[in-house]
Amino acid sequence: MGLLEYAVFEIAGARKGMIVFLTLAYIALLFALKSSGIIRLNLAWKLSPIAWMFFLLIVLFIPMQWGAPSGPVGVFRNVIEIVPAVSGQVVEVPAEPLTEVKQGEVLFQIDPEPFQQEVARLSAALVDAEQQPELLASAVEIAEAAVARAEAERERARQKLARSTELVESAAVTQEEFEEDQRTSIVADRAYDENVARLAQARLELAAVTAEGENTAVAQAREQLARAEYDLEHATVRAPSDGQVQQLALRPGARVAALPLKGALVFIDSSRTRVSVAVNQNQLRYVRPGQAAEVVLKYLPGMTLQAEVLGVAGVTSGGQVRSSGVIEDLSQKELTPEPYQVVLKITDVRVSESDLPGGAVGTAAIYTGRVQFAHVIRRVMCMMSRAVALRYLLFLFALTLALVARMVPAVGGEPAEADTAVEADAEEKFLRLVRNDDGELLSMDTALVTFLPTGDENAGVEVTLVGVVHIGEKQYYEQLNGEFDNFEVVLYELVAPEGTRVPKGGAPRGGNPLSMMQGGMQRMLGLEYQLEQIDYQRENFVHADMSPEEFEKSMADRGDSFLALFFRMMGRSIAEQARQASQNGGRAQNSDADLLLALLNPEGSNKALKKMMAEQFEDLEGAMSVIDGPDGSTLITDRNQKALEVLAEQIDAGKKKIAVFYGAGHMPDMAKRLADDFQLDRGKTRWLKAWVIEEDDKD
Question: Which pLDDT score is estimated for 490?
Answer without folding.
Answer: 95
